[in-house]
Specification:
Chain lengths: ~300, ~525
C-alpha cells in the first residue's frame, strides 16, 4: 500500500474523522450542518412516501411480525407537531416506527440522527435523509444545532432517541433531557413510544433482522404536555416513566400496567441490577415463540 | 486552551505521530494503550515588553533593579546558552528583550562596567552568530567580543573559589560573575529542570564544582530532576547558590514559554491527530516523504532551520528562590498532566533535537540515550510513569555517527568506555577523571567548539536513574550495533519491541505513550 493510500485510510478521507471516545472535545465544534433541506422538498417527500409505503413498510412486515398498539392515541394530536421519544435498542426501531405511524403523520415526520454516525459520508447522509427523513444532531458535546427546533416550529414531528445511542444489552438507559428541552422550547407535546423485541430481532452488530420473523411490538402512549414551570429534567423523567409503563403495558395489559406503576411493582426500565449476561439473557427473551422455518404466510 | 489529558486508544483512534530522530511516522498503538497529551499552548503575554518592565520594577523579595544599579559598580549579566529553548525561538529571543531592558536601566543609572557572560558551563562555546541571534544586534555590536564572552570553565585565571557548602561541595564559578557588585541572570525556563540556583551555580561553574552533583549517586537520587524539590541535583545546586549569594547579590529574571514548539506552518506536530485538517495531513505526508528521501545533511539542515513560534507566558524577577517558585508554577500550568497510575511499558518517540546537538550534524547515540533515559524518562512528578522493572520503548535511528567538531570526546567515550562497561558508577570510577583532565579535550573545549571532555559521562549519568529503575530498554528502528554497544536491544517495529519486553512485563502489559514534544510532565498519582 502506498504511503498516500495509507494516509487516506488512516484519516478516513471522504468521511468525517472519527474521534477517540476519551478525547476531549474542541471548545467550539462547528455543528455538522450537512444540509438536509433538499430532503424535505415536495419531490423528495414524494419519493420518500413511495419508498416508505412501497418498500420499507412491506420489508419490515416481511421480516418481523410488527404489532402496533395505541395508534389511536395519536389522534389527540390533531395537526399539532410533537416530539416522539422512544427507547432505542436497534436500527430497526426507526423503520418499525415509520411503518407504524399513520401515513399523514409519517409524511411530516423527521428523525433526529447522530451526526457522528449517519452524517460521516455524503452517501450515508443522502440515503438516510431521503428514505428516513433524517436530520443531523450532535450527541457528543458539539455546538448544538437548531434544526430540530426549527423543524418542530414548522410543523414537523421530530423523532428523538433520548438515550443518545442504541442500548448495548437491550435494556434502556437513562433518558437525557434534550428531547424534553426541545419540546419545552417549542411548546410541543411529547409522544412516548415503547418498542419491545427489536433487540432480539436486530441488536447491535446485525445489519438485517434475525430469521424467523421475530415479533416486534410498538406501543404509542398518550401525548404528554409539560406542566407549568416544569423543567426539562423532570419532563424527561416523566417521559421515561411513561415509556417504562408502556413496555409493561405491552407485556401485560393497560390496566395492569397502570396498577403496577402506581403500586411501585412496575419493572424498572433499566432492567434488573444483575450481571451483564443475565441482563442480556432477559432482554433477548423472544416476545413470543417464533417459527424458525422461514416466513410464515398466514400470521 | 484545553488542558492536557490521557487518551485511551480505541477503534476510533487514528494512528499517532511518533518522532523518530530526523523523521517521524504514524504508529497504531494497541487498543487500551494510554497516551499522555500535553496541554495546548497557553496564550502568550499580550505585551512582553511591558511584562518585563513590570517584573524589573516590581521584583519579588528585592528592590527594583533600577534601585540596585549605581555608577561605578561592576555589573555582570549572565544568560542561558544555546541549549535553550528547543527548537530555538523566533527572534527576537526573549533573552534579547530582557537584556536590552536591563541595559537601558544600567545606562540610565550610569553603569559603565558591564559584562555579559554566556552560562555555558561545560557546554561548547557558542559562535558569534549564535550569540548574536540570542542577544540581538544592538547588544552584540556593543559588547562582543571583549565584554560579551562564553564562560570558560577551564580558565583558571577567570575562576573564583567561593568556599565549601555545608556538605563540603566546592563552589567555584566564573570570576567576573562571582566578584561583581550585582549579578543579573536572564533565563529561559523551557522545562521545570531549568532555572533557580541551577542557572548560576551550574551554568557558571567549573568542573571542580560540577562534579559534586553531576555524578551517578546524585542522579540516581534525583527523582526526578524535573522536580527540583525531589532532586538531589537541585538540592546541591541550591546549597551552592545560597553560598554564592553570600558573596554576590543575584537578581534573577526568569521567563517561561508556551507549548508552541514548532512553527505554525508545521501545526500537525503540535495538534492532536484526530483534529488534523487536510492541510495538516498534506504537510505531514510531504514533510515525511521529503525527509525520508533527502540525504542526511539536507534532512538535518531542513530540521535545524526550524524555529519555534514560542510565546512568552510569564516574566518574573527578583530573589532567586521566590522567582523560581513562580516560574515553576507557570511551567506546570503549561505542561503538567495528571496520570492515574504507573504503566508496564512506557513509549517515547525521540525527536531530532536535544539540548546538546543544536546546530550539530547529528544526534549521536550517547545523546539519544540521554534524551530518552535522561530527559524524557524524568518528565514526571511524584513517581516514574513506568513501574519499577518495567520496560521503556524508544523510537530513534541511533545512528553510529558523531559531530567531530562538537563531540570529539563522545567518539572515544562510545568506542572505549562503553565497550568496557555501561554501568554509570563503574565508568565514573574508572574513566571520568581521565576524560575530564585530558589536555586535548580541554584544548578543544577552550579554543574550538567542543563539549568538555567529561560531558559524555554526564550524559550517561543523566540516565542513571532510568537505568536503575527499568527492567528493559528497546529501541525501535535503532542501529543494532550502536544500540548493543550501549547495552540495549533494537527492534524493527513496536510489535517486535513488545514481544521482546514480554519477558519482563508479560504478554499483555499496560502501555503508555507520552506524546512528546511539546513537553508534558506526567503528574503520576
Amino acid at each position: 500500500m502506498s504511503s498516500l493510500a495509507r494516509l487516506a485510510r488512516d484519516f478516513r478521507w471522504g468521511h468525517v474523522p472519527s474521534v477517540p471516545a476519551t478525547a476531549p472535545r474542541r471548545e467550539v465544534v462547528p455543528a455538522r450542518e450537512m444540509s438536509t433541506a433538499w430532503a424535505r422538498t415536495p419531490l423528495a417527500r414524494g419519493v420518500r412516501a413511495v419508498a416508505q409505503a412501497g418498500a420499507l413498510a412491506p420489508l419490515v412486515r416481511a421480516e418481523v411480525r410488527l404489532q402496533v398498539t395505541g395508534a389511536a392515541r395519536l389522534t389527540a394530536l390533531g395537526d399539532e407537531a410533537a416530539v416522539l421519544v422512544l427507547n432505542h435498542t436497534s436500527h430497526l426501531d426507526t423503520a418499525a416506527l415509520l411503518t407504524a405511524l399513520p401515513p399523514p403523520m409519517r409524511s411530516r415526520t423527521v428523525v433526529a440522527a447522530a451526526a457522528d454516525y449517519f452524517f460521516t459520508s455524503w452517501w450515508k447522509a443522502a440515503g438516510t435523509a431521503l428514505v428516513f427523513g433524517t436530520v443531523p444532531i450532535e450527541r457528543r458535546g458539539g455546538a448544538p444545532t437548531d434544526a430540530p427546533a426549527r423543524l418542530l416550529a414548522q410543523g414537523w414531528n421530530v423523532v428523538v432517541y433520548p438515550e443518545g445511542s442504541r442500548s448495548y444489552d437491550g435494556w434502556p438507559t437513562r433518558f437525557r433531557p434534550g428531547a424534553a428541552a426541545l419540546a419545552l422550547t417549542c411548546g410541543a407535546p411529547i409522544v412516548p413510544v415503547a418498542v419491545r423485541g427489536s433487540y432480539t430481532a436486530m441488536p447491535r452488530g446485525r445489519s438485517w433482522p434475525a430469521p424467523g420473523r421475530p415479533r416486534v411490538s410498538l406501543v404509542f402512549g398518550d401525548p404528554l404536555r409539560a406542566a407549568p414551570g416544569e423543567q426539562a429534567l423532570a419532563f424527561a423523567g416523566r417521559a421515561q416513566a411513561e415509556v417504562a409503563r408502556l413496555l409493561d403495558e405491552d407485556e401485560t395489559d393497560w390496566w395492569s400496567s397502570l396498577r403496577r406503576a402506581n403500586s411501585g411493582e412496575q419493572p424498572a426500565l433499566q432492567g434488573p441490577p444483575t450481571g451483564s449476561w443475565r441482563r442480556t439473557w432477559a432482554s433477548t427473551r423472544p416476545v413470543e415463540p417464533t417459527s424458525t422455518g422461514g416466513p410464515r404466510v398466514w400470521t | 486552551m484545553r488542558p492536557g489529558f490521557v487518551l485511551e486508544v480505541d477503534e476510533r483512534t487514528p494512528p499517532l505521530l511518533v518522532h523518530r530522530g530526523d523523521s517521524f511516522g504514524l504508529e497504531r498503538f494497541p487498543l487500551g494503550s494510554r497516551v499522555v497529551y500535553p496541554p495546548e499552548a497557553l496564550p502568550g503575554l499580550p505585551d512582553v515588553r511591558a511584562a518585563i518592565t513590570q517584573a524589573l520594577e516590581h521584583p519579588l523579595d528585592s528592590e527594583p533593579l533600577r534601585v540596585l544599579l549605581r555608577p561605578g559598580m561592576r555589573l555582570t549579566i549572565a544568560f542561558d546558552d544555546i541549549s535553550l529553548p528547543l527548537p530555538p525561538m523566533r527572534t527576537p529571543d526573549i533573552r534579547q528583550q530582557v537584556i536590552e531592558q536591563v541595559l537601558e536601566l544600567a545606562a540610565a543609572a550610569g553603569v559603565d562596567d558591564v559584562e555579559l557572560v554566556v552560562a555555558n558551563a561545560l557546554h561548547r562555546r557558542m559562535t558569534g552568530p549564535e550569540i548574536r541571534r540570542i542577544v540581538g544586534d544592538r547588544v552584540y555590536r556593543s559588547f562582543w567580543p571583549q565584554a560579551l564572552t562564553n564562560h570558560d570553565a577551564e580558565d583558571r585565571a577567570n575562576l573564583v573559589h567561593l568556599g565549601l557548602t555545608d556538605e563540603g561541595e566546592d563552589v567555584e564559578i566564573n570570576k567576573r560573575a562571582g566578584t561583581s557588585d550585582l549579578l543579573v541572570y536572564v533565563n529561559v525556563n523551557l522545562v521545570s529542570m531549568d532555572g533557580g540556583w541551577k542557572s548560576t551555580a551550574i551554568g557558571l561553574a567549573s568542573y571542580a564544582s560540577l562534579r559534586h552533583h553531576h555524578n551517578t549517586k546524585t542522579m540516581r537520587h534525583s527523582r526526578s530532576f524535573m522536580d527540583h524539590k525531589a532532586s538531589a541535583l537541585h538540592s546541591s545546586a541550591w546549597r551552592m547558590g545560597r553560598l554564592l549569594q553570600e558573596h554576590v547579590p543575584v537578581f534573577q529574571i526568569e521567563t517561561t514559554l508556551n507549548n508552541q514548539a514548532f512553527p505554525t506552518s508545521y501545526a500537525f506536530l503540535t495538534k492532536r491527530e484526530w483534529e488534523w485538517s487536510p492541510r495538516d495531513q498534506a504537510m505531514f505526508w510531504t514533510l515525511k516523504n521529503g525527509l525520508d528521501r533527502a540525504p542526511g545533511r539536507l534532512r538535518r539542515k531542513a530540521l535545524s532551520d526550524l524555529v519555534a513560534d514560542y510565546e512568552v507566558t510569564s516574566v518574573q524577577a527578583g530573589a532567586v528562590e521566590p522567582v523560581h517558585e513562580l516560574t515553576i508554577a507557570n511551567v506546570h500550568r503549561q505542561q503538567l498532566v495528571e496520570v492515574g497510575g504507573q504503566t508496564d511499558v512506557l513509549v517515547f518517540g525521540l525527536p531530532y533535537l536535544c539540548p546538546y546537538n543544536v546546530n550539530s550534524s547529528v544526534m549521536n547515540p550517547v545523546l539519544a540515550m540521554c534524551l530518552g533515559l535522561g530527559y524524557f524518562f524524568n518528565m514526571y512528578r511524584g513517581q516514574p510513569l513506568v513501574r519499577k522493572g518495567g520496560a521503556l520503548i524508544l523510537y530513534h535511528p541511533v545512528q553510529n555517527a558523531f559531530d567531530q567538531l562538537h563531540h570529539p570526546s563522545y567518539v572515544d567515550f562510545f568506542e572505549e568506555v562503553l565497550a568496557e562497561s555501561t554501568d554509570p558508577a563503574i565508568i565514573e570510577e574508572r574513566f571520568e577523571k581521565q576524560y575530564a583532565t585530558d589536555p586535548w579535550y580541554t584544548h578543544l573545549y577552550r579554543t574550538s567548539h567542543a563539549y568538555h571532555g567529561v560531558h559524555p559521562f554526564y550524559m550517561w549519568y543523566w540516565g542513571a536513574h532510568a537505568l536503575e529503575h527499568l527492567g528493559d530498554v528497546v529501541w525501535v528502528g535503532g542501529d543494532r550495533k550502536a544500540v548493543q554497544r550501549m547495552g540495549f536491544r533494537s527492534a524493527s517495529t513496536l510489535g517486535d519491541a513488545l514481544s521482546m519486553v514480554s519477558g519482563s512485563v508479560g504478554t499483555s502489559p499496560t502501555i503508555t505513550y507520552q506524546h512528546n514534544p511539546p513537553h508534558s510532565i506526567a503528574d503520576v498519582r
